[in-house]
Each structure stands twice: as structure tokens, then as C-alpha cells.
Specification:
Blueprint lengths: L1 E8 L5 H13 L12 E6 L3 H10 L7 E5 L22 H13 L5 E7 L1
Antiparallel strand pairs: 1-2, 1-3, 2-4
Length: about 120
């Protein structure tokens, strides 16, 4: 079973969201833009529930500055969404680091599929 985790910076810490919002408004002249949100998506499989819970709170997110959502992003109905991900064969530093950290939590099994910026 593949479990999906979405992580978003809390509004007061969402510096990249604010920068992207300003870039889109300025460079693309999209004056009707109201908000931009950046979610990091992690897909995880073959780990125990305990390991998954620990990874969500220590590896995939930083609880004081991040909001975490399991399986679905809330309140996206009627909004435009696009995803960005590495091409097959490209090195993904974030995914590689997450895999190594999950292996510390579950050294005898478990695989991590990857992450995606949404």
C-alpha cells in the first residue's frame, strides 16, 4: 500500500510561496492571482504504521513550521493545480535524504518511492 503525505509551510513561514506569488504577478502579469501554495508530496510504501507516523513528524515535516496532510490536499476544489517532478534518472536530493532517514527508523525493511513538488 502506498501512502501519500503532503507538507506545506505554515503561512508565517511560507517564504517561497510569497516569492513565487510575486514572481508570477510581476513577470507573467497575472493580476487576478489571489494565492499560491506549495506542497511537497511524499509517497511511502512498505513501512510499518509506527515508522510512518514517526517519519511524518520527524522526516517529512517540521511540526512547528509545517502543516501535514495525509492522502489528500484539503480545499483544492475549483483551484488550478500543477505538479513538478524530476525526470526518470535525475538525482533527487530530497527523496534520497528522506530514504536514508526512513531507513534509520526502519533499518530492516521499507521502501520510499519519492517526492513531488505540487
Amino acid at each position: 500500500m502506498v501512502r501519500r503525505v503532503y507538507v506545506e509551510k505554515k503561512k508565517e513561514y511560507a517564504v517561497k510561496e510569497r516569492e513565487l506569488f510575486e514572481d508570477i504577478k510581476t513577470y507573467l502579469s497575472i493580476d487576478t492571482l489571489e494565492d499560491v501554495k506549495i506542497y511537497i508530496r511524499y509517497d511511502v510504501e512498505n513501512v510499518s504504521d509506527d515508522t510512518f507516523d514517526k517519519a511524518c513528524k520527524t522526516i517529512f515535516s517540521e511540526p512547528p513550521v509545517d502543516d501535514i496532510y495525509l492522502e489528500e490536499i484539503p480545499d483544492i476544489e475549483g483551484k488550478r493545480v500543477f505538479g513538478v517532478e524530476y525526470l526518470p534518472g535525475q538525482f533527487d536530493q530530497r527523496a534520497d535524504s528522506a530514504v536514508q532517514c526512513v531507513q534509520f527508523l526502519a533499518p530492516f525493511g521499507g521502501s520510499f518511492i519519492g517526492h513531488r513538488l505540487c
